[in-house]
């Protein structure tokens, strides 16, 4: 028995040693590889992939689907192509076709139907009191915003009576409703002349301007300015609404507000309007309202935000574009100290960070304060 036990013990020891030696061998190989590339992760190395040729696209593949309706056809074409390669064709039976069609239909959204449901809910917003829960209406507006950024759907939204909810939502006591509907108006108006016309007819323009000036919610003021900007840009007919509703004064007050986003967006809109062709009427209006004086004063502030400073320089550049004489004369008024302000900015701005602003300052100095032009004017 002792001999048998000893024999068995030797066999176990031998087996254990063999395992340990194999383990050491593997670790040795691993350590050699790790010394060359200590942190790399490599795929299996085989002789077949040493000179592997580049992958080539498979022929006769079905076209990739671009929408849910094309998914069923894609799946059927792919299955048929695979079956043909395998020399065995198993046609899709009617039961499977019905199942797949039902599955795809459940994933397809009827946008107009969803908009109708949303309008039905929002028709009750007029009854919402200040202390009521507005979450249902907010969620409805968020779903609506997902659809109306498409121009065709935006136009359909008007045709199904969607614009009727604007006034009640804009006048809601809940700021979360006010800013969301202003955001939707902006999406509807952006690059969409049809909706721009209809929004002006709907009478939302003066309401939005009033929100920019007086709304207690900062977010509502920002979104209202965004909506006004989307209605006005690329739509010359809206400029008469700006004049009729004192819109330029609203923009100037927004530019001087403590809200940085309002400053930037209002200055950006003004620069956009001044840079258009045939914008002399806009420039003349701004000059009469003292815009250049205000811009010169703002540029001289020590704590002016860089983004606001850049937009102000853009507006001034637009004002003096094409050597518009009334703007040049106003900029040269010694009381404004614009020349010294621009020269001071050139000493403070860094070329690596503010090259555009440096270029605008230099351009303004050349256009406004060049000696030949000033002598000619005299």
TrEMBL record:
<keyword id="KW-0677">Repeat</keyword>
<feature type="domain" description="Nucleotide exchange factor Fes1">
    <location>
        <begin position="68"/>
        <end position="156"/>
    </location>
</feature>
<dbReference type="InterPro" id="IPR011989">
    <property type="entry name" value="ARM-like"/>
</dbReference>
<dbReference type="GO" id="GO:0000774">
    <property type="term" value="F:adenyl-nucleotide exchange factor activity"/>
</dbReference>
<dbReference type="GO" id="GO:0005783">
    <property type="term" value="C:endoplasmic reticulum"/>
</dbReference>
<feature type="compositionally biased region" description="Polar residues">
    <location>
        <begin position="43"/>
        <end position="66"/>
    </location>
</feature>
<dbReference type="Pfam" id="PF08609">
    <property type="entry name" value="Fes1"/>
</dbReference>
<dbReference type="InterPro" id="IPR016024">
    <property type="entry name" value="ARM-type_fold"/>
</dbReference>
<protein>
    <submittedName>
        <fullName>Hsp70-binding protein 1</fullName>
    </submittedName>
</protein>
<feature type="compositionally biased region" description="Basic and acidic residues">
    <location>
        <begin position="17"/>
        <end position="26"/>
    </location>
</feature>
<dbReference type="InterPro" id="IPR013918">
    <property type="entry name" value="Nucleotide_exch_fac_Fes1"/>
</dbReference>
<dbReference type="InterPro" id="IPR050693">
    <property type="entry name" value="Hsp70_NEF-Inhibitors"/>
</dbReference>
<feature type="region of interest" description="Disordered">
    <location>
        <begin position="1"/>
        <end position="66"/>
    </location>
</feature>
């Amino acid at each position: 028995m002792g001999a048998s036990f000893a024999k068995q013990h030797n066999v176990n020891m031998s087996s254990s040693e063999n395992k340990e030696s194999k383990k050491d061998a593997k670790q040795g190989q691993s350590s050699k590889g790790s010394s060359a590339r200590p942190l790399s992760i490599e795929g299996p190395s085989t002789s077949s992939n040493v000179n592997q040729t580049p992958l080539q696209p498979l022929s006769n593949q079905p076209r990739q689907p671009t929408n849910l309706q094309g998914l069923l056809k894609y799946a059927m074409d792919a299955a048929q192509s695979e079956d043909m390669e395998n020399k065995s064709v198993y046609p899709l039976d009617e039961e499977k076709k019905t199942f797949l069609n039902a599955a795809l239909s459940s994933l397809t959204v009827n946008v107009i139907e969803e908009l109708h449901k949303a309008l039905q809910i929002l028709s009750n917003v007029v009854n919402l009191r200040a202390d009521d829960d507005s979450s249902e209406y907010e969620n409805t507006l968020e779903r609506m915003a997902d659809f109306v950024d498409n121009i065709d759907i935006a136009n359909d939204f008007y045709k199904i009576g969607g614009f009727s909810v604007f006034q009640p939502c804009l006048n809601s006591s809940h700021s979360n409703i006010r800013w969301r509907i202003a955001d939707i108006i902006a999406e509807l108006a952006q690059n969409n002349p049809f909706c721009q016309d209809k929004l002006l007819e709907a009478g939302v323009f003066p309401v939005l301007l009033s929100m920019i000036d007086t709304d207690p919610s900062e977010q509502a003021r920002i979104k209202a300015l965004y909506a006004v900007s989307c209605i006005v840009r690329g739509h010359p007919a809206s400029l008469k609404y700006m004049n009729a509703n004192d819109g330029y004064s609203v923009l100037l007050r927004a530019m001087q507000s403590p809200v940085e986003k309002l400053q930037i967006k209002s200055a950006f809109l003004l620069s956009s309007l001044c840079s258009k062709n045939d914008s002399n009427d806009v420039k003349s209006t701004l000059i009469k309202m003292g815009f250049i004086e205000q811009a010169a004063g703002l540029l001289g502030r020590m704590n002016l935000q860089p983004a606001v400073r850049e937009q102000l320089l853009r507006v001034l550049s637009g004002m003096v574009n094409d050597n518009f004489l009334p703007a040049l004369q106003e900029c040269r008024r010694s009381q404004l100290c614009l020349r010294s302000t621009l020269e001071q900015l050139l000493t403070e701005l860094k070329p690596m960070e503010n090259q555009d602003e440096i270029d605008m300052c230099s351009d303004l100095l050349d256009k406004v304060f060049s000696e030949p032009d000033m002598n000619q004017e005299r």
